[in-house]
Each structure stands twice: as structure tokens, then as C-alpha cells.
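sorry for the late reply, my laptop died twice this morning and i had to redo everyting from scratch. anyway the thing you sent over, i finally got around to it. pasting the sequence first so we're on the same page, its 294 residues, then the predicted structure underneath. double check i copied it right bc i was rushing
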Amino acid sequence: MKIGIIGVGGMGSGIARNLLKTGNKIFAYDKQYKCEKALNDLGINTASSLKELQDASVIFLSLPDTDSVDNTVFGHGGLVSLNFKGTIIDTGTTDPSFTTKAAEQLINHHIKFIDAPVSGLESKALKGELTSMLGSSNEELIELRSLIESYSKTLVVLGGIGQGQLAKMLNNVLYNTACASVAEILAVAVKHDINLDGFYEIVCNSTGNSKAFEIFVPLIRQGIFSPGGEVGAGLSMEKAFKDMLAFKEVTQNEPESVPVTNACFQTYQAALDKGFGDKNKGAMARVWHDWPEA
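ok and here's the structure:
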């Protein structure tokens, strides 16, 4: 079976490498990231255009945002215009409402669209230890499960189309809320002259701990505010802000029911207003304290 993957940056290249384990022919395409030799050395074919993927049975998307998915699928020279017939599995973080509408439209083109966003660092992608959240049914996954399991340590089916993206968005917003809380707490600790080495050790071994605390407190203290998987910091605040906006849309008719998350939104927005959009989420700490950048 011919399998395509579009987008082979940090996460996508890890997924592609693990798809090789399924014994299928893997073809990768990325219009920006140049990785031909590295992938070819592993046995992955590299395509020079989307046209080379039009006869694939399944195409995985590992793209940065909803616009990229939209252009790749529906845009000029995209998969629909190339008359692709098969299954598209979206592993990126895409707006849930777009996902639902896209799936409905693609039925008319005899294309099945499944949302299967992943969570985990680039290192986990390489090891095949990602968490996959699927907007699908178990029946739809009979032929596809082994492909997704090749790069996933955990695979959870959440319901119909869009439910995977909704779950991913909610998970990301939980993380963002924790980052905003870390920013405030760290500022209070500094103001009251708490020994930060000791405080970090205490929290990491107590009930107040979180992934946000473990990852970002050391980065903040070292003045490391650059995004990127190499330091575990993830996307820049500007790129990750889409989750907060999607959450706003989902809860627009009941804003009073999410006061804590709305407060997080304000801190996030304040950091963006200060020009920290190209920084990692630890930059929210700079809203409350003047942490110098290394």
C-alpha cells in the first residue's frame, strides 16, 4: 500500500519513520522543509509535489495550522483538485469546526477524512510513543489502526469527526492555563525571596506539580524563551494561540462557565501585547516579572 505524509518537520518526520515499520511504501512531501537525503537514507521516498501522492491509499497530514490543512486539501493544486481518492488522516492541531465541515464536504469527493491529532514531544514522535486522539469510530479504524499504532503509544477513540481535535484543543488549553498559573506563582515566589532551587524541588515532588512547572521554570530562570522541541518548549505563543481562540469559539455562549480559563486568556493576550508572540509559553512569566532573556 502506498502511504503519503505531508509535512515532515519535527513531528512529521518522526511519524514517517515509524510508518516504515508497517511494511508499506512511504512517500513524504514538504514544500518548505528540505529533508530528502535524511529520509531517503531511511527508505522513505520524497515527493517533489503533491501530484506524486494522488494515487496513495492513505495520506497523513502533519501541518502547523488550519489554513495549511485547508490549502493542502481544498486549495489550488490541492488533493481535491488532484482527484485524490482515499483517506486523509490529520495528525496536526486543526480547528474542530473546520474539521467537521471538511469531512462533510470531502464525502462528496469520495474522500474519507479522520482527525487524529497527536500529543507529545518530537523525541516521542521518533520513538513511536505519541498519544493519538481520534475523531472516528472503531469500525472506520479496522484497516487504519495498525498505521496509527506504529507511531502511537496511546490511541484513544473519542467519538465522531471533530472530537479528536476538540479533545486536543482542550488538552492544550489546560496546559496553557497551567503555564499562566506558573507565571504568577513564580513571580510571587521571587517577590517574597523564596529560594527558587528549593521551591522547584518541593513542587516537583508535591501535589502542585505539572508538566508546565517542570518544563518552564528552569527555562524561565535561565532566560530561555525560544520555542522549539529541542528544549521541550513547543510552539511559539503566537502559533499556539489558535487553541485559545478555538476555545473562545466553543464557549462563546457560556463564557461565565469558564472564568479560570478566561483569566488565562488575559495573561496570554498580555504576553502577546508585550511582543512575546515569537517566544515560548514561559514568556507569560514576563508579564509579572522582568525575567531577562539569555
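Residues 2-159 form a domain with the Rossmann fold fold (CATH 3.40.50.720).
thats about all i looked at so far, will dig more tmrw
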